[in-house]
Write a structure and sequence with these properties.
The protein is mainly beta and 335 residues long. It folds into two domains: 144 residues, Methylamine Dehydrogenase, Chain H; 160 residues, Methylamine Dehydrogenase, Chain H (7 Propeller). It contains one helix and 28 strands.
Length: 335
Amino acid sequence: MTRTSNCTLFVLALFIADGATAAETAAPGYHVIKKIAIGGEGGWDYLTCDSAARRLYIARSNRVMVVDIDKETLVGEVANTPGVHGVALVPKLGRGFVSNGGDSTVTVFDLKSLKELARIKVGKRPDAILYDRASERVFTFNAGSSDATAIDVEKQAVAGTIALGGKPEFAATDELGQIYVNLEDKSEVLAIDAVKLTVVQRWPLAPGEEPAGLAIDRAHRRLFATCHNQKMIVLDADKGNVVATLPIGKGTDACVFDYSAMLAFSSNGDGTLTVVREVFPSQFEVAENVPTEAGARTMALDAKTHNLFLVTAKAKPGQRRSYEPGSFVILVVGK
């Protein structure tokens, strides 16, 4: 082979390598694909997507709206859920669990009929709620009593309470028996043993302050905490050390992680969606900031289509958390 040929191959190799790097770092290209107008009065909080059943559960003030995400129609509502914050699903039992901040209860409902099956008294002002498959328990994280309530999903009864020492905001599970919860007033993340019902680790989030959303990359043991001082903090889920700090939009209230794309998302009330790429478990970067709409601060991921659902409504001028009638919409964000 000639020297000229060797040089040509070397240059070609560099070109291919540069092209691959450029492809990896290019913006993913997320945007609002469509809007689904479903109306309804009142504010909103967490969204929960059942990708298998093709349903989106939306917490709306005093009830849960259930939407068929393929037909883009309202299926029905889970009624009488005062101050509702979130929904946890247990498909194998055909049950859902709703955290009611207004009366400090959890509503157990049938996933098919949406009818109430039971009502369980928990800690004061339950906010976030999740189902942990490893322990087969639903956990509520109670802002008013600074604790967590564990519910046996088979018995539909309280299994125990965990003192947290601060105001919980959101939680995530590694599905191996450990649950993580962020404390908004302490700017900390706690690791909880879901079986023993004990706090096993307590980690500071500095430089993050007032955490809101929390998500997990279970494969690489990384936690993503979105904070009100416009930072996403990436933590090692085993050691608790800060791996990365990234800028996000203002007014975050949710975070999700899509393992298939290796992307973490922060939905921000300022009308942006911050997309963070996991290049390696030790390297993260902001891939893009996607325009959404003001108020679209919570979201859910559809594991089937990999689209994101965000919700918002048109605010009345000069009125906090008061919205124009019928203006509530679902924003579908994808590529």
